[in-house]
Structure formats: C-alpha cells, structure tokens
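Quick start: what a row looks like.
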Amino acid sequence: MAHDIRIPKLGMSVTEVTLIEWMFGDGETVEKGDVLYTLETDKTSTEIEAQESGVLRVTGEEGQTYNIGDVIGSIG
C-alpha cells in the first residue's frame, strides 16, 4: 500500500511553501529517516525526512509552490 507524501505544517502562520529539491529520483528506494526533499518558506529552509521505507513516486515539481497538506508524491 502506498503512503502519500504531504506537505507538512511548518508553523502557525505558514500556509504555503516552495518545493526546492528532491533528494531522490522517481522510482528510487528510500529508507525511513532519509531526507526526501527540501522546502522553503519566506523565512527558512527545512529538510523533510521519509516516514516510511519503500519506492518513491514523485508527483510534486521542484520550484513549485504548494499548500500545507498537498500531496507531492508517495512511498510504496
């Protein structure tokens, strides 16, 4: 079963973020705890770790802005 990768809530006032970089490509295997991607807000950059192990499926595009909760990929 695939697990959605969603944009996490990073702060009380943050409503959208920019996906800066994927650390793994589509179809690569990731382990729980690996840094998957980097997000940027108007104040900071944050590395987000994988919550599951499995094969990464990327749907979110680098450089695009996303709202909190948007699905940007899956691990299955």
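That is the whole record. The radius of gyration is 12 Å. The chain has a mean pLDDT of 96.
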